[in-house]
Amino acid sequence: MKKDLISIKDLSVKEIEDIFTLTDALKKDKLKYSQALKGKTLALIFQKPSNRTRVSFSVGMFQLGGLSIYLAPDEINLGVREAIKDVAKTLSRYVDGIVLRTFEHTNVVELAKYADVPVINGLSDLSHPCQGLADLYTIQEKLGRLKGVTLAYVGDGNNVTHSLLYCASKLGVNISVATPKKYEPNKDVVKKAKEFAAISGAKMNLYYSAAEASKNADIIYTDVWTSMGQEKEAMVRKKIFESFQVNKKLVSLAKNGCLIMHCLPAHRGEEITDEVVDSGNSIVFDQAENRLHVQKAILIQLLK
Q1: Could you say which of 223, 245, 262, 295 is catalytic?
Q2: pTM for the full predicted model
Q3: Average pLDDT over residues 234-261
């Protein structure tokens, strides 16, 4: 039976740990896996612009001996020019896997339902599983552990927040999320993450204060205040999120040596200041690099 990656919610702790173990191996010896996906082809269907997701999957397939095919928004016009069901069934005859970067989460769910090959969620409005997995892998790599680590997420309760909640709660990472009122993470995601936290022993807290969430944190994580598709809200959000900026003052409330994370792209001077994102404690570009390595592990697990 084929396996998809739609949400971290669907992964077991062992499956996540296996991805991390394989990622370690891939980073240590790239050549050993250079033919792991020889003869395999991956379709990249992108309805949204991308830097890290597109490049990391394309380079990842190349480094594993496979081929990727990029399909821009106008080439398929998913659900408009051609029904999602038909795209899924057709591409399943040509390729060995599909990555979909889309606006609506229902699109990736429907594509996976009708595809006969593995489907990977490259980003939807509800979830960003590859980002969440790369982030937790990076924390483990930097701190040597996950259990008992405290991660503070400050900003919009968006798709990245949801994936962090799922992954942290499953792996025993304490997570504090600070958002303005009416910008909280999805209630169903929070409810499920609390269930995972009860099993792993992780502590999970929601705040309306960036300062409260950041106290004694090992890591402070943020994301843009205005995501793609929300551009009309940019000025309103800028005012509402003003007190949620990750700056030197906020970082001073966390533990000494607190690590700084951001999934990028960053709107410097808005959700994070230059002096923080460029500081010695920033691991922003390490987590960006680890998108490549973690996704290579995911591709091997799903396509081989």
Answers
A1: 223
A2: 0.96
A3: 97
